[in-house]
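Hi there. Long-time user, first ticket. I'm pasting a complex I've been working with (about 850 residues overall). I'd like to know whether the download I got is complete or cut off, because the file seemed smaller than I expected. Thanks.
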Amino acid sequence: MNIEIINIGDELLIGQVTNTNASWIGEQLNLNGFRAFRFTVIGDKRQHILDALADAEKRADLVLLSGGIGPTKDDITKPALCEYFGTRLVFLEKAYHDIEELFARRGLKVTEINRLQAELPENCIDIPNRLGTARGMWFEKHLRGGRTVIFISMPGVPFEMKAMFTEEIIPRLKSIFKPQTIIHKTVLTQGIGESFLAKIIEEWENAIPKNISLAYLPQPGIVRLRLTASGDDPEIVGEQVENEVKKLMALIPDYFFGFDDDTLEKIIGNMLADKNLTLSTAESCTGGYIAHLITSVPGSSRYYKGSSIAYANDIKISELNISPQTLEQFGAVSGEVVKEMASGSRKKFNSDFAIAASGIAGPTGGTAEKPVGTIWIAIASPVSVNTYRFLFGDNRERNIRRASLQALNLLRKEISEYSLRIQKK
Amino acid sequence: MNIEIINIGDELLIGQVTNTNASWIGEQLNLNGFRAFRFTVIGDKRQHILDALADAEKRADLVLLSGGIGPTKDDITKPALCEYFGTRLVFLEKAYHDIEELFARRGLKVTEINRLQAELPENCIDIPNRLGTARGMWFEKHLRGGRTVIFISMPGVPFEMKAMFTEEIIPRLKSIFKPQTIIHKTVLTQGIGESFLAKIIEEWENAIPKNISLAYLPQPGIVRLRLTASGDDPEIVGEQVENEVKKLMALIPDYFFGFDDDTLEKIIGNMLADKNLTLSTAESCTGGYIAHLITSVPGSSRYYKGSSIAYANDIKISELNISPQTLEQFGAVSGEVVKEMASGSRKKFNSDFAIAASGIAGPTGGTAEKPVGTIWIAIASPVSVNTYRFLFGDNRERNIRRASLQALNLLRKEISEYSLRIQKK
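Hi, the file is complete. Here it is re-exported in full:
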């Protein structure tokens, strides 16, 4: 089955907006057992739209369009579709009713220009838009030789398009084309680069069943491993994936931290809230980014007490209670100092756990002994304070992010060990 | 002049990677007086590449390709190009020499697979790649009827492609096609939404000369206004832009903060460093994000002392020296409390300026009197403490970002006023 995606909009061609719609649709198709073979972007120009439709018709069984169906003058996809299919716009009572309701929910009356949104090509199937006025349009073109091409036009506004695609389009496509079962599971790792990870799991990767594919999805500080399995029997495919995930996890116990949409900050938040434990932080080189990650989780005030960010050395002494001797003897970027920072934070904030980080984020400020990218992290728990040294790269932004994620993952392990220990008692 | 962009890569079609290359190239073309009319994405499939080339040839004067020219087996753009142009790969000594140097800089020898990267289609002009092994390839195809189509193949790795496009491709295209002078200037605003901004500048926008266009580029908390002017005489066009920018700035003195690639955190950093002034922060609802923005600027340790992040109320009392009475009487989210937070922070960190923020980031935790999105900000300077109340939306992430940027912009104004005051003395 040949699927093509056409995105329409001048703003895409001049780079004002990145075409995230195409990659999102491509991914969703893939996650549901379909596959797109070509994306095309064109501007809001009548002839370009007609040409792109004719080109796609020659090759594709399904053409997904987005963009250009808003109520303003520059949106010309609807008249172009009418011209292409030799049809005309007709007023659709049901569409108008939905638009009225949408406006009523916001306490507004439908304006004249938005009334036009209820006019649709006579030959299309109308598809509701729960979040906006631009209706989806489903066309079927029966070609000589018996081939049928489906064209589906969707809004360009991402959240409207996504809701329509997920709720209306995908279920219809699945019921018509009955694709194979596709099961995905993403394994999340922290603290190891893509190539090193690939080496560790090489043998496993070479031995996974043919119907399972593996994708490496790296982000700064995190590598996601996505397994995609296809087959006829959902139960068998599901079991296969679970088996492979188990084998994979056994190979990378130090780096694995979660699945799918998990984040380290959410996982830690759940662990702390579950056990009624609290956390505080003491940051130097990460400059508040650890605190930001932790507090980006709704409800984090239940377990997060606060942080001291000490950028200047005198502040480290006054705020974090670092002894001037330790600072003098070992320097601010040292295991001794982060240890005192973490202990001091636990005490000051009266918290169960504390994270401390100090390092040289760069791009300058390194020495031969402590080059740019040197980061010390300490985790204080009710039973111990452990320190760790890392050497990252020379990009400030990435160093801050990697150090923060590394600190969260170390904390995750310490909380988990501590929870086991108190359970045993 | 008709330009098309073709991006090649299976990872694009399944949404594993968003096609940022096309939008970046589209923007760069636009910034240099060119314009693309179609983007196409195809997978690493021989026939699909040949088809896309043939399609583009029919319409375009210039076809820009990226992707599929790495050294691994799945990269098949090079053989497909050879097939399309009826040519063969030849070993290019100069290309090999560059690759050797690239490896030598990393202390490595060229591997067999990377030696293949020096093999290029016989009929192309070789374009150096300063940052990688994949060479650029420039083809010219002379069609019957006298039309010539230029095809340029570039790497898919964004930073390699970008360097090659900026340093090698754009200068050559400009010298061949001599586009009009294009001058851009982006005016940065904070603290006002796109539609409100549009209303304020409506009259001005309607009156700008025809050869200048305006684009609204909104980001959370910030709206950028980009003026793009074209013409024959660079001096006249430059003057026109300066004139319009002046008029625009006069309309939005409260929101304007900088130009082009400026950020609030960099501007503030420069102001503080210039005048030998220091800064500290006291954060509640923003949870370290203000500190993160400030410390994301290299060299921020020169003027930034540190922060206290107080999430729990008892920490606000102990760490920020808020009087329990104030907290009791007005609540943590109040002008009185942020005032004490800012003053306390200035004193504690011995800084010239201090920012304090407290609010309800959401999505829950609001009351009738203080709904979600209520944020109080205080700025303490050597001469005063001013407080400000804002009501943002119900999205936690956006509220944290908007509050932080708003706080930085308020600080910027206070530093600027203070600097004027001490200058006058």
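A couple of notes from our side: Chain A has 16 helices and 17 strands. Chain A touches chain B through 67 residues (CB under 8 Å).
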